[in-house]
Design goal:
Radius of gyration: 19 Å
Strand content: 15-25%
CATH architecture of the largest domain: 3-Layer(aba) Sandwich
CATH topology of the largest domain: Rossmann fold
Helix content: 25-40%
Bound molecules: pyridoxal-5'-phosphate
Strand order of the largest sheet: 1-2-10-7-8-9
Structural class: alpha/beta
Shape: globular
Distance between the termini: 35 Å
CATH class of the largest domain: Alpha Beta
Number of domains: 2
Order of helices and strands: EHEHEHEHEHHEHEHEHEHHEH
C-alpha cells in the first residue's frame, strides 16, 4: 500500500561556509530534513512512515503513543495519523496544566486524544503488560513507542541517506532515543562514519545505543561515534551561549535551529570540525522547530520562531 506520507524525492542540502572550515578543507553540508513536510518535520517523518503504513495495512483504526508535554513526536504523530486516516491517542507524561501548551494544542487540534499520567506510571511505558492494559480502557490500538523508535522507525530512517550522500565522510545527527542514528548506521557505507550528538545528559547512551542495534538486529558496515558532552546541562537545558549560537547561526546561514536538538548538534559538529582535515561532513537537520514556541513559554526565553 502506498504511504499517505508521500515519498520525498530530494531534500535540499545547504553548504555552510566559514573561513575556519575552508582553511581545513572541510565541507559542511546541512541536509534540511526540517523541510521534508509542511507539518511533519524532520526525522519524525521517517520514523512514523512505516509505522502508520503498517497500522493501516493491519487494519488498525487507532494508534497510541507516549511523549512529554513538548514532544516533537507527539505533535508529528497527531498530524501523521490524521493524514493517514487514523485516530490517535497520546499518553502524556505528567500533570495536565490549566492550559495546553502549543505542542499539545496542535496535537489536539489534529484530533489526538490526550491523556495525562503521573511520572511514576509513565515509567512503565515500555512494559508490555502496561501497554496491553491500556487496551481495556481505549480499545485496540497500534502501539508506537515513545519517540517512535522501533524496527519500523529504523527502516524509515535508513532511507534518509541517498546515493548522493555517499560523498560524505561523516554523517552527523542528534540523538534522543537513537532511532534515527540506528537507521543511519544501517544505511551508511563502509567508508563512512556516523556521528551522534546526545541531547541527553549521561554516559548511559553509549550502552543504550549498542543495545538498540542488537535488539533491532541492525547490520552495519560503517563505523560510528557518540558524543555525550554537548547537552548543555541536560535535556532541554540551555544557556546564553547556546541561544546566541542559534541566533547567530540563523543570521549567518538562514537556517533556524531548535534549542533542544539541532542547536546543540550544530554547536557540537562545528566544535568537532576543528579536528578534521579534508573531509565532507553531512549534518542532518532533524527538525524540531515546532518546539520553540513552547520552549519560550516554558523558560521565558525569546528565541525567534521562524
Ligand atoms: C526526536 C528528535 C531527535 C531524536 O531522534 P531519535 O531518533 O529519538 O534519536 C532529534 N532531533 C529532533 C529535532 C527530534 O525531534
Amino acid at each position: 500500500m502506498k504511504s499517505p506520507l508521500f515519498d520525498p524525492k530530494s531534500i535540499q542540502t545547504q553548504k555552510i561556509t566559514l573561513p575556519s572550515l575552508e582553511k581545513q578543507n572541510v565541507q559542511l553540508l546541512i541536509k534540511r530534513l526540517d523541510l521534508v513536510h509542511p507539518f511533519i518535520s524532520g526525522n519524525k517523518f521517517y520514523k512514523l512512515k512505516y509505522n502508520l503504513e503498517t497500522a493501516k495495512s493491519e487494519g488498525y483504526h487507532t494508534v497510541l503513543t507516549f511523549g512529554g508535554a513538548y514532544s516533537n513526536h507527539i505533535q508529528a504523530t497527531a498530524i501523521a495519523a490524521k493524514l493517514s486516516g487514523l485516530n490517535s491517542i497520546g499518553i502524556i507524561r505528567g500533570e495536565k496544566a490549566a492550559a495546553l501548551n502549543p505542542t499539545l494544542e496542535e496535537a489536539e487540534e489534529n484530533g489526538m486524544s490526550l491523556y495525562f499520567i503521573t511520572r511514576e506510571s509513565y515509567k512503565k511505558k515500555a512494559d508490555d503488560r502496561f501497554v496491553e492494559g491500556l487496551k481495556e480502557r481505549f480499545g485496540d490500538f497500534f502501539h508506537i513507542p515513545e519517540g517512535g523508535t522501533n524496527n519500523l522507525a529504523i527502516q524509515g530512517t535508513s532511507e534518509i541517506l541517498k546515493d548522493e550522500d555517499q560523498q560524505a565522510d561523516i554523517i552527523a545527527t542528534s540523538i534522543g532515543t537513537g532511532g534515527t542514528m540506528a537507521g543511519l548506521v544501517k544505511a551508511a557505507k563502509f567508508h563512512q562514519k556516523v556521528w551522534g550528538f546526545s541531547a541527553l545528559k549521561g554516559g548511559f547512551i553509549f550502552e543504550e545505543f549498542d543495545k538498540l542495534l542488537k535488539e533491532q538486529k541492525v547490520n552495519y558496515n560503517c563505523s560510528y561515534k557518540i558524543f555525550a558532552d554537548y547537552h548543555f546541562g541536560g535535556y532541554a537545558k540551555h544557556n546564553a551561549i547556546l541561544l546566541e549560537f542559534i541566533e547567530n547561526f540563523y543570521e549567518s546561514f538562514g537556517i533556524p535551529l531548535d534549542p533542544i536538538y539541532t542547536g546543540k548538534l550544530l554547536f557540537g559538529v562545528l566544535d568537532q570540525c576543528q579536528y578534521l582535515e579534508n573531509k565532507t561532513v553531512l549534518c542532518l537537520h532533524t527538525g524540531g522547530l515546532q518546539g520553540i514556541k513552547g520552549f519560550n513559554n516554558r523558560f521565558g526565553t525569546s528565541l525567534k520562531d521562524r
